[in-house]
Amino acid sequence: MTLWYCIFAFSAGTNASDLYEIDRKFKNIDCIDCHLKTNPGLIAGWRNSSHSNLTAAAKEVADCLTCHGDSHKGAAGKSRKNSTCVGCHGGDKAPVIHSYKSSKHGAIMQMTAKNIDWGPPLKQANYRVPGCAYCHMYNKQHDTRQSIRRKKKQSDLTQMPISEEEQLFRKTVGVCVNCHALRYIKRLFESGERMQAIAWKKYNEAMRLVDDAEKKFSRHEIASLKTRLAIMQQHLNNVYLGVGHQSPDYQWWYGQPALDGDLIKIKGLITDLNRMLNIRIKQVE
Amino acid sequence: MEKEVTKRWPGYVWIPFIIALISIPLGFYYVNWSKGGGGAGLYSHEWNPDEVFVYWSPIDFYKSVDTVKGIFTGQQCVQCHQGVSPGIVSDWRNSRHYLSAQKGALPGKARSLGQVLETNTGLNEKNATTGSIVYCSDCHGNDHQNLHLPTPDICANCHQLQHSQFIDEKRYGFPSHALAMERALDADHFVDKPKAEVVACLQCHSVATKCDSCHSRHLFSPAEARRPEACITCHSGPPHPDDESYFASAHGQIYLSEGDSWDWSKPLRPGNYKAPTCAYCHMDKGKHQVANKSIWKFGIKQVNPLTSGNEVKRQQWVDRCSECHDRAWSIQQLREMDNERKLAWNKLYAAEKIVKGLRDDKLLFPAAGQRPSYPNNLIDQYFPMERIGFFEGQASAFYNVSPIERDYFEMWYFDNLSAYKGSAHGDVSRVIKSHRSMDRDLSELKKAAELKRQLREKEKQLGITPVVEAYWNSGEYTDYNRENN
Q: B432: which residues sit within 8 A by CB, 6+ positions away?
């Protein structure tokens, strides 16, 4: 049916803007049928993205309608707004959103959001500040894994092949350079890597201690250590988000000093366990 | 004979004079020398900056890019950067720096930028060329190999009044926007930590070194700077949740629901806004100085809110509040805050007493001397001592400590300061929540202290001397921190 509709529309010499005027309620399959012909790149990109490739954590596929709504009118503009992303990505208080909101980009966005014209495409500094989609889906990139994205794994920080590193940097530069100087982006990028590497050092130090403790103590005894290590992973992620979204608070108060505290507390818990163990040994003797 | 004695001063009188004569210039020389190292600030010889510091403290570190040669006019800058970095050019085109020369673009009856400045600042602006565009080169310079990042001094060429108000803040001491950078650079823990880690600090403390922390570049819009969001990038997070406490208050709720429809081009004067924002209360009528009214300041030490100086500040606050509220009611609100602070400090002192009690009984484990020493402190290396609370200088070491000291730090810095901001900004539920957290912190500290005492008691009975394991002084990060600060 949709196919026929498209064929009819094109054979009748209708151009794209006319199509927008012929509006009705669409289903996801309708969108895909038609857009596979008009812009297959978008569909292919989306299919590659985590929006369509389900991970265990995601319950539902984010399909065309999730972001664009079910009508043609304003479908593009609607999807460009931050509010489109926030709902699924944990809400305003989730670190991934809050780290953006507490950045300068996010702060300016909050002040100006109501007066923004979401019509222009997401490229070439058409917006005063970038929203989520401006960076993560730059220039219609529907494969969110392909647009700007910072590496997260520790091994990536040290062992990423230079070509990949270069590629990642280029993708980032391509977006940021609309507003910022190349040298500035490069320095921020590299400094961010160094900051993340330091955060990983804290985590590694703690993890090694917990590993050693695991050999020495029962599962019950080290339960609180494991909990603290899990909290540490969140703080580690905060540093990553702080660097990516340029939020000083996520780099610092939710990140580095929080990791310092975790490390001290893990050392303290292990020390207490050791002291109690020594007491038990002596008592048995 | 007697006459002679009264006439002559004994020889030893000259000793202090001579000592002063030598030590005063020597002191000046030393301070001067200490600021001349690779880093910046008092401990500049102890550290070298991370590359990215150039943007946060441009006065100290910025050097222009040398890939483009030549001397350019303002128009040429715009022509080229329109292609290279369109975002900043379009921002600038929407700014008053550009619009000043366009007809009908200026507010009110002003016909030129000079007039705008005159009405804004009350000064006769000789420096501003009337009716002309403020180009890139006016602030950045025109030699591309010798460009600069505009510091407040450069903005002061036209915005004299605002700059002088901003600088005037220094006389009120910390905390202060104008002193923020030195505060960071001279902090022991800043010097002690790897520089790539403390990059985060400078991003906010750079409020002292550049005006675009609040007037974001390249629009520099006063309307934007008046809104609370202009402040939240720095005034957020556990020790200063100004954003959350304000937005949750009645003031903040009104702002959130209606703020978008207010006319933000209006100055921060009584009657112009339905609810106050950060700047409305803290920057009297737009004055670029926020420290004059602060009574409790950062909140990390107890102050006497009833001194004559603080009574003057209180009057200023009451004047501000009573622009909308009843005077007696406003006074009552501030008294309630005094009571809340007193209650919080009672809890903090109780906690401090517990930790100090452990120190007295030599129960802090690992003790000072058994763990990395206090940052940047020579005396501490020879006479190690655990520092507890504000007056002993704990604020600069929240990581080279034992777990129980860190717990106290968290109660003091996070829950206490959260309660403080809640009561200052009128977020009642935060006050209740934070005090509940402080109660819990206190009882957990008691429990932990009791555990430490029991452990030591048993160890004594069994003749065990607890060993400080190697991991307190080494490990992937601990080693890195020692070697790379």
A: none
